[in-house]
């Protein structure tokens, strides 16, 4: 059954990005009754999967529940005149092949590289702060304020972490070994699964004798890892933020080291480990990927909610049913939704093994995150680095600004508050000001501020929910913390958008508010993501595939899950 909807068709202009933006809001089209592939959800991974499949000649349609594409990688004008990267807010992890294969620069992607990239002001030490950037000698001078020993150790630490990231990279760009096929499949499937061992072998070759150290980073608390390198708390706490960000874990939680490694595996413009702001906000990245897909013929529909996956009598996925009753047939279905939504809401439960359903329902998706988007009429003026007389941005304004992060004990206490069902009294705050490099995001003289904060439990002690009073009380506490570092901040606020874990779940489909779809813990990685025996993007229902952050290699704006899933799907389609 065909139905009208907001459809994004082939870009026809010489300027793909501008054509895309126009088509995004104005084009109307007819929904076809059948496609080769259907993608559920226009998050960045779903868009990447669609772009690759369409380039391979697989006629693909994407259905998005919201009025805007991008999933968590969106730009929204929540406050008039202020454009926010409402959920995800930084770019680094996107796999370099995706930039090239999808020609993202041609389709309008522009990135502002940040250098310096990290600023940690000291609250109790007046004008003291830790500023880190691309210049190693300057980094050492900064660290020497706190420890000469740490200043000497820092280059060796960076080299060590980069070597681990280099070893892990082959694993990001390939499907995990299909263990089910290896043990239970036909001879042909077993032989095919052996090829997936090559990335593991390459990683092992790179690590060599360092394998025990790598294992420790994967399994140990990040405090144990950092204590072996450094003695100064400001440096250790600043580095530890990347080990706990987005995770309901503390620096003392075993395995927190992997999350740190996950966040140092990226790069921008050929610079390893670099992070940056997307010109126009994170939605511009999603626009560029979608422009690449539609330029080759893909169709992307907004405001089209998938109600269920259709399964044939033979047990194979054969399309989807939309919320308005429209039926769309396809050879394969890729779900960019979370594993929980895909298997517990969109599929008939009788089509799935009982043990599989139980495993999915038990996935750890706890989230500590509250994202607050703030419109301000001037730059924050930090006591540790006062503003310029003219109010123009200074180098530290482009950084990830870490507040309440001078000591790992502060991070631990913030975590313990949430474990007791309370929002952190002194939350860990990562403050970013993308308009410091991209003034198009705010009116002249004004700025957009992104506050990525934790820890906030999904449900408060005693089963209480986050009502307006509780939400505003927490935001006020965050603002009070910022005020202590940057007097005058509260008076500069023009408006705010508060997204607690339940809001992140409701608006963006993040289960429990978890930015990774499910926790990036060792029991939910690689062979076991989302669950053991189902980590190769294929699902118990043939013809259905996961392509989102709940699949290998996990969360972050990486695109690897979408790219890898598309390659697996294309291989399966060729053999049908």
Automatic annotation (TrEMBL):
GO molecular function, a single term: oxidoreductase activity
One Gene Ontology cellular component annotation held by this UniProt entry: mitochondrial matrix
Pfam family, one: Amino_oxidase
Residue span(s) of domain Amine oxidase: 254-380
Localization: Mitochondrion matrix
Alphabetic keyword roster: FAD, Flavoprotein
Annotated function: Probable oxidoreductase that may play a role as regulator of mitochondrial function.
Known partners and oligomeric status: Interacts with COX5B; this interaction may contribute to localize PYROXD2 to the inner face of the inner mitochondrial membrane.
Protein family membership: Belongs to the carotenoid/retinoid oxidoreductase family.
The protein's name in its UniProt record: Pyridine nucleotide-disulfide oxidoreductase domain-containing protein 2
UniProt source species: Molossus molossus
């Amino acid at each position: 059954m065909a139905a009208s909807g907001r459809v994004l068709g082939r870009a026809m202009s010489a300027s793909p990005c501008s054509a895309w933006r126009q088509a995004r809001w104005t084009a109307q089209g007819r929904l076809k009754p059948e496609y080769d592939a259907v993608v559920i959800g226009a998050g960045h991974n779903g868009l990447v999967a669609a772009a690759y499949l369409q380039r391979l000649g697989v006629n693909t349609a994407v259905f998005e529940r919201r009025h805007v594409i991008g999933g968590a990688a969106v730009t929204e004008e929540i406050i008039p005149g202020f454009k926010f990267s409402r959920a995800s807010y930084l770019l680094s992890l996107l796999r370099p092949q995706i930039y090239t294969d999808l020609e993202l620069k041609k389709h309008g992607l522009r990135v502002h590289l940040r250098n310096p990239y990290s600023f940690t002001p000291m609250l109790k030490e007046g004008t003291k702060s830790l500023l880190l950037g691309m210049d190693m000698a300057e980094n050492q001078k900064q660290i020497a304020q706190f420890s000469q020993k740490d200043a000497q150790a820092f280059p060796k630490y960076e080299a060590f972490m980069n070597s681990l990231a280099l070893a892990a990279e082959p694993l990001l760009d390939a499907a995990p070994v299909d263990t089910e096929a290896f043990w239970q499949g036909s001879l042909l499937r077993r032989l095919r699964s052996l090829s997936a061992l090559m990335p593991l072998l390459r990683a092992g070759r790179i690590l060599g004798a360092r394998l025990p150290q790598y294992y420790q980073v994967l399994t140990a608390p990040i405090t144990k890892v950092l204590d072996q390198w450094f003695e100064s708390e400001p440096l250790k706490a600043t580095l530890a933020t990347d080990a706990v960000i987005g995770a309901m874990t503390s620096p003392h939680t075993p395995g927190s080291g992997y999350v740190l490694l996950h966040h140092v595996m990226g790069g921008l413009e050929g610079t390893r480990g670099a992070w940056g702001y997307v010109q126009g906000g994170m939605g511009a990245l999603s626009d560029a990927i979608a422009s690449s897909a539609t330029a080759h013929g893909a169709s992307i529909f907004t405001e089209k909610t998938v109600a269920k996956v259709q399964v044939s009598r033979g047990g194979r996925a054969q399309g989807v049913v939309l919320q308005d009753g429209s039926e769309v047939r396809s050879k394969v279905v890729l779900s960019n939704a979370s594993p929980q939504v895909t298997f517990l809401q969109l599929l008939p439960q009788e089509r799935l093994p009982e043990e599989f359903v139980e495993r999915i329902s038990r996935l750890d998706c706890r989230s500590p995150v509250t994202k607050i988007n703030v419109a301000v009429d001037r730059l924050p003026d930090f006591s540790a680095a006062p503003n310029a007389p003219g109010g123009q941005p200074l180098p530290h304004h482009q950084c990830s600004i870490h507040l309440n992060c001078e000591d790992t004990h502060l991070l631990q206490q913030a975590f313990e508050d949430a474990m007791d069902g309370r929002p952190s009294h002194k939350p860990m705050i990562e403050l970013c000001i993308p308009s410091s490099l991209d003034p198009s995001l705010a009116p002249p003289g004004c700025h957009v501020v992104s506050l990525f904060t934790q820890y906030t439990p999904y449900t408060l002690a005693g089963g209480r929910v986050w009502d307006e009073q509780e939400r505003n009380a927490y935001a006020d506490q965050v603002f009070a913390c910022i005020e202590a570092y940057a007097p005058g901040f509260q008076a500069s606020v023009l408006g705010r958008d508060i997204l607690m874990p339940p809001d992140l779940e409701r608006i963006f489909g993040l289960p429990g508010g978890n930015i990774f779809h499910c926790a990036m813990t060792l029991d939910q990685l690689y062979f076991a993501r989302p669950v053991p025996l189902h980590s190769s993007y294929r699902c118990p229902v043939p013809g259905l595939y996961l392509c989102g952050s709940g699949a290998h290699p996990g969360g972050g704006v990486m695109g690897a899950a979408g790219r890898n899933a598309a390659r697996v799907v294309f291989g399966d389609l060729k053999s049908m």
